[in-house]
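Cross-posting from the chemistry board since nobody answered there.

I work mostly on the small-molecule side, so proteins are not my area. We synthesized zinc ion and want a rough idea of how it might sit in this target. Sequence and SMILES are below. Is it possible to get a predicted 3D structure of the two together?
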Amino acid sequence: MELIRCFLFFWDPTHFLVIIGLIISMVASSYVNRTFKHYDQYRSQSGVTGTDAANYILQQSGISDVGVQKISGNLTDNYNGKTKVLSLSEATADSTSVAAIGVAAHECGHAVQDKKNYWPMRIRTAIVPLANIGSTAAFPIILIGVLLSWNQTLINLGIAAFSLALLFQLVTLPVEFNASHRALTILSEGGVLSSEEVPMVRKVLTAAALTYVAAALSTFLQLLRLVLLFGGNRNDN
Ligand SMILES: [Zn+2]
């Protein structure tokens, strides 16, 4: 009984929003893993590896200042605009599967965005420090606001700080979808992928993009929870 009372004390119904967010993120991440695994079994007809595909796309896009390197980890592939390094995980770099080629091509899509000064990517890079500070400071600011006999101005400032994290994730969406779109166009036009392989790669990249949608949804639900709990003035008691 003590345990249940304790649980009810710390439990409020808005926790459901956080749980729904967690479930959405888990489903999205398991979907991307399953989709990758599935299409990792299909060897590409052209026989190129992820690294080959990356070098091909960079060359086709007139990018000569980006290096391709292999890194450890599972789906740790990324493009670093500052160092101009495109890192491919072991599963991607040496594999000739359509999934690996798709992932490598997606990262190249970011390198192309960087070269072409794709503006959502610029905004995204500019927001990163703000979003990091915002998501770290939000909860302490709200807590201090509550402790200072419910200082609504401070609490609102905390909620605004948290919303920067959501803003970052919303700006991430067009950047990610656009990188995949560029990747698919170059791969299919250049003949690296056959007409049967293009839809397979599209499925892998769509699954990957859905994890970003899930992350944004989950952050939105957390923000909604903060607004429901702390958003209004507490004059109703
Ligand atoms: Zn990406």
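Reply from a structural biologist on the board:
Welcome over. Reading the output above for you: The first strand starts at residue 67 and ends at 71. The two ends are 28 Å apart (CA to CA). Happy to explain the token format if needed.
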